[in-house]
Amino acid sequence: MAYARKHGLRYTVNAGDPHLRDAIAKHYAYPHMDQAANVCVTTGSQEATYAVIKTMLDPANDELLVVEPAFPSYAKMAALEGVHARSVAMREEDGFAFDAERIVSAITPATRMIVICSPCNPTARVMHRDQVQVLSDALLRRGNDPVWVLHDEIYREQTFVDDAGYFAQHYPYTIVTNSVSKSNALTGLRLGWAIVPRDIAPSLVKVHAWLTSCADTFAQQVALHVFATGSINEHAQWYANRQRHVSRALADSGLRHIVPEGSFYACVRLPERADSLKTAHALAEEHDVIAIPGIAFGRSFESWLRLSWVGDSDQLREGLARIASYSVDARLHAT
Amino acid sequence: MAYARKHGLRYTVNAGDPHLRDAIAKHYAYPHMDQAANVCVTTGSQEATYAVIKTMLDPANDELLVVEPAFPSYAKMAALEGVHARSVAMREEDGFAFDAERIVSAITPATRMIVICSPCNPTARVMHRDQVQVLSDALLRRGNDPVWVLHDEIYREQTFVDDAGYFAQHYPYTIVTNSVSKSNALTGLRLGWAIVPRDIAPSLVKVHAWLTSCADTFAQQVALHVFATGSINEHAQWYANRQRHVSRALADSGLRHIVPEGSFYACVRLPERADSLKTAHALAEEHDVIAIPGIAFGRSFESWLRLSWVGDSDQLREGLARIASYSVDARLHAT
C-alpha cells in the first residue's frame, strides 16, 4: 500500500487515468483510435464488453451475431440486456478456422454487431488478415447503418501466427476490448479497456460510469507501469515457446486436435457421439484431468474438449495421454 | 506488488473471497444475513447498486421509488435499465429529515423498491430508528408482493447520532450496499458489496458475474485486512470530532443550514429564488469555493448547496464566510 500511503487512493475520472488511456491508445496505434479519448478503462474486459453491448445495441431492434465456438459471456450479456443474440458457427471440417464468407452469409437486416474473439477462446484459432479483409470489405459494401465488429482481443498477446488480422486496422466500425488479465497473468487485477471511435466514446463512458464509476486506481497504476515498461508483451515469448511444446504433445497424443494459433488453449476431439459434459465430469472425477466441455462454447463444439496449457508441460502430456486412453475405452464401450 | 509476487493475482470466485464475505457478514451481523452466502463483493458500491436494480426490478412492471434529495445515480441506473423511477422528496420545513409517513404515502401498486441513502448524500440527515420502524411496519402491513428497501449505507461509518436506524435489523426485505470507499478513504480501491437475503444471492451474483466477473483480488485482500484489523471504524472518531467543529462553523456562518447527522457533507440554504447551479458556478469562478448545486440532487433541493468538509477546518470556515457574503450580495441585488 506504499502507493496509497503516498498518493491516497482516489477515484480517477470515469474513463480512466488519461496517462494510461494515452499509453494504451499509443501502444495499439489503431487508425483514428490512437488518442486517449478513444479509450475507456474498465473493470476487466468483461465490463468493457458489457458496457459496449449496452451502449451500442437497442433491444427492440438490434441483433448480436456471435461467431462460434465462443465463450458464453457474449450471449449471456445480450440476454441480460434483452438483446437478441444469434450465432454463426465455424465449421468443424475446417478445424473451426474463421471463415469470413460464412459470417457474411449469417448477417440479417437486424444484425447490428458481430462479436469475434481472435485469438479464439476456445478454439485457439486466429482470424487471418485476409479473412479480416474479406469481412471488412463485405461490411463496407453493405452500406446502410453500419454493422459493428466487436473484436475481443483478450488473447492478442498470445498470438503465434504472422498473419493475424485486426479489424481496427481495416474497418472503421470496430470496437476493441482487451485487458492485462491474460497478457500479464493478472486476471485478479480486473483492469481492461475498450478502444472505440471518437464519437462512440462519450456514450460508452457514461454507461461505464453508472456501472462502476471508474476502474481501481491502484490497478490503473499497475497497468500504466505495464505499458510504460513494455511488459505488456513480456510473457509473449514464453507462450510462443510453450506453444511449440504443446503442438508436439498434441501431435504425439494421437488425438484429433487443432494446432493453437493463439491463446493458451488446446482443443481435442472426442469420439463420435461422445457427450462432452459427461466426458469432462468423468475425466475430472476418475482421471484427475480438468477439461472444459465443448458444449459450453456452443452446440458446434459439442464433441470437443478445451484444455488450458499454462500449467506444467509434463502434466499436459500426461493429461493428453489420459484423455486418449479414456477415448479409446469410450470407443470400445460404444461398439 | 509483494502480494501478487507471492500469491499471483487470480480471479476469486464471482461472489468474492469467502473469507472477506464472511468478515463483512459477521461485522454487520444483520438478522438472517450474517453468513458469507449473504454477501456479494463488487467493484465499489456503485456496481452493487446497479446489479441490485438489475436483479430485482422488472422494467415492464416495477417502479423504483427514490427518497429525495438523493445522489442522481439511482434514477440514472434505473433509466439505463428502462425501469421507471419516481421520487418522494423530504420536506424543507423539516430540514429534509427522513419522514416515514411521507414515504409510505408515495408508494403505488407498481412500487417494488425504495432506495434510501442514510446517512444521506446530500443532506447529511440520518434516518432515525423510530422512522425506520414506522416504515418497516407499514411495508409489512401492506402484504402482497414485498416492497424492497435498498438501504445505501455508504456513509454508515460516518454517523453522529445514537439512534440511527438500519432497515436490515427490522425489515426482512432489505438489501444493504456499502464499501470501504468512504469508511477508509479508499474511493479508488473500488471495493464494495451488497448484503442480501439468502434466496436473492444466487441471482445477484449471476448478474454481477456477467458485469465484471469479480472484484479486484488485490482490493479484496485490502478489504479483508480492513475488517480483520477492525479498521473499518478507524476513521469514525476523526469524523465525529470534525463534525463538532463543522457544526460550530455552520452556526457561526449565519447561513441557514442542516446540522450534519452523518456523512461528511454540510448543506446550506441560498437566498430565495437563487439558482443553485449558477450560484455554484459563480462561487467556483469568482470566489474559489467548490460547492455542489442542490439541483443535482432533485428539484426539492434547488435552493441549497452541498459542501464537503473532509478538507481543512479553516478553509471550511473561509468557504462558509464567502458563501454568506455572496448570499448577502445576491439578496441585495435581488431587491
Structure in words:
The structure is a homodimer of 335-residue chains. Chain A has 335 residues and is α/β, with parallel strands linked by helices. The first copy, chain A, folds into two domains: 2-233, Aspartate Aminotransferase, domain 2 (3-Layer(aba) Sandwich); 236-334, Alpha-Beta Complex (Aspartate Aminotransferase, domain 1), CATH 3.90.1150. Chain A is built from twelve helices and eleven strands. Chain A has a seven-stranded mixed sheet, sandwiched between helices. In chain A, helix 4 (73-81) links the parallel strand 2 and strand 3. In chain A, helix 10 (236-253) runs parallel beside helix 12 (313-334). Chain A is globular and about 60 Å long. Chain A starts with a helix and ends with a helix. The mean pLDDT of chain A is 93. Chains A and B meet through helix 3, helix 4, helix 8 and helix 9 of A and helix 3, helix 4, helix 8 and helix 9 of B.
Strand content of chain A is 15-25%
CATH class of the largest domain in chain A: Alpha Beta
**Total of DSSP H or I helical runs spanning 4+ residues of chain A:** 12
Helix content of chain A: 40-55%
How many separate domains make up the residues of chain A?
2
Instruction: Supply the helix-strand structural class of chain A.
Output: alpha/beta
Radius of gyration of chain A: 20 Å
How would a crystallographer describe the biggest sheet of chain A?
7 strands, mixed
CATH architecture of the largest domain in chain A: 3-Layer(aba) Sandwich
